[in-house]
Amino acid sequence: MRYDPSHITRVIPHRPPFLLIDAVESVEFGRRGVGVSTLDASCGLFSELRTGELVLPRSLLIEAMAQTAAFVAAGGSVFGEAGLSEPSAPPAVGYLVRVSNVTFERDVYAGDTVHYVVEMAKHFGDLYKFTGTAEVDGVEIARGELTFSVPRDPSG
Largest CB tally within 10 Å, which of 13, 32, 42, 137? Predict the structure, then answer.
């Protein structure tokens, strides 16, 4: 099942313009997923280079990977493991606690479509560690490890 922004915003608290993924194309809740975004020059997130090209700040690639990973980690509690279309529980709030081993191969330019492929590496209690890559046209442009917490009871 493909999840669009109306589904994604039921799971993570981000809203436009800081919701950086347009959709989650495939997901195995609690295991892996693929988010996607097509970055239009009008989105206001780009910096202009001296050459006039618009480039996405690299930190936003990591943020988009983190948003995809948070959806994969917490989406099962909202939509059910089978991926139901109606939520069965309130959304979870996650906190990005660590970014490590990040490498960038090239920049992302206006008009690029980026796929964020994330896979859970470890899970312990409320902590989740994911590995992630960002790809444009099937070519890896960035990779890194993301650790975040999704408390089961945010008030506690």
Answer: 32
Q: How many residues does the chain have?
A: 156
pLDDT at 42: 85
CATH number at residue 114: 3.10.129.10
The torsion of the CA quartet 80, 86, 88, 89, rounded to 10 degrees, works out to: 110
Instruction: Dihedral sign for Cα 20, 25, 27, 33, please.
Output: negative
Assess contact for 12 and 24: CB atoms under 8 A.
no
Structure tokens, 114: 């980026």
Number of Cβ within a 10 Å radius of residue 127: 15
Q: CA–CA separation, 24 vs 38, rounded Å?
A: 12
24 lies in some domain: yes
